[in-house]
Design goal:
Layout: H1 2-17, H2 21-25, E1 28-35, E2 41-43, H3 45-57, E3 64-76, E4 79-89, E5 93-104, E6 107-116
Parallel strand pairs: 1-6
Antiparallel strand pairs: 1-2, 3-4, 4-5, 5-6
Length: 122
């Protein structure tokens, strides 16, 4: 289980490195509920892909995302809570996210994601 969950964040990192919103969003469920660091709510993988595509074409072009998972806590069979700290270089932003990952049809995906910039880290 843990390896498949880690793979979700590796896919996000690779999509980010390639500036590819679709690849970044591929870790998320089609019906994901995603809260950005600015508090905007995105509903669905398509919205996450479009939003990140705009970021990669603008202020986060040629940046690198590095994610570090600090907690994977199973809540029930096929459902886990995940805490992740990410850094965006070279802009120097650190974020903290709490995610709910689910296994559907044998595949792990992020069903809910809340991302924020800790106080004093922006």
């Amino acid at each position: 289980m843990s390896e498949q969950i880690y793979e979700l964040w590796r896919r996000m990192e690779q999509g980010w490195a390639n500036g590819d919103g679709e690849a970044f969003a591929s870790a998320f469920a089609q019906d994901v509920d995603f809260v950005t660091v600015r508090g905007a709510e995105l509903f669905g993988r398509r919205a996450v892909a479009l939003g990140h595509g705009q970021l990669f074409a603008g202020p986060y072009q040629d940046t690198k995302l590095t994610a570090e998972i600090s907690l994977i806590r199973p809540l029930a069979d096929g459902i886990s809570l995940v805490h992740v700290t990410s850094s965006i270089a070279p802009v120097g932003i650190t974020t903290h996210a709490q995610a709910v990952v689910v296994r559907r049809a044998g595949v792990w995906e992020i069903a809910a994601f809340h991302n924020m910039i800790p106080k004093g880290k922006s």
